[in-house]
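step: validate -> pass
step: tokenize input -> pass
step: predict -> running
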Amino acid sequence: MELLIFVYIILGLVPSLVWLAYYLREDMHPEPKRMILEIFFWGALITIPVFFVQVGLANLLEMTNLNSTIFSIIYWFLIIAFSEEFFKYLVFRVKVFNSPHLDEPLDVMLYMVVAALGFTAIENILYLFSPAGPMSFDQSVTRALIMVLIRFIGATFLHTLCSATAGYFLAISIQKAKKKYIPLILGLLIATVLHGLYDFSLMATNNYIKIGVPIAIIVVLAVFVFTGFSRLQKMKSVCKV
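step: predict -> pass
step: emit ->
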């Protein structure tokens, strides 16, 4: 049992660490490793308040008499998607925004992604520990490997893309002298809506929508994020500080 716990923890970390290595390669001016680890840690730590917020709000929602569709929309878009996107942004706001290491626009997207990867690392581990009935060690490892692969190209990637999207608009807002909150709100709104639509499509729909919509969201966000990385790399290396 102890070995299986160790395997679950390692496998749960793998998707986040692989994506972290990829995104860090996109940065032409590498950030301090200590800063990266700190933001990754805080991204992981916020899973605790997010969990309590989501459980509390879900319990309140259960007390309503809403029909199933409205219930699902509120649950996946507001309780799940918005709370996660907001808390990931909160890590950046509290731990990075006033940091001297935030010295170029691309850093905003990068640190938002790092916070998201810390968050999803814990999320992945918790998913692996979810009950699945009696299984042998080999069966448990096989199940874990399949889940990790699915989450690597799905939920983990989605978290990075949503946070990177919010980070792109946040970087634009930092550059603006006036109406700087409009891009920030827009970025969080887009990230929340697409994150919520992804979850809602997977969990509350059937047939081709269940697969087609999440794939389309991943593709559209990926194109936007990688284009955004290129745009921010061409901006002047001056952020807020």
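step: describe -> The mean pLDDT is 91.
step: cleanup -> pass
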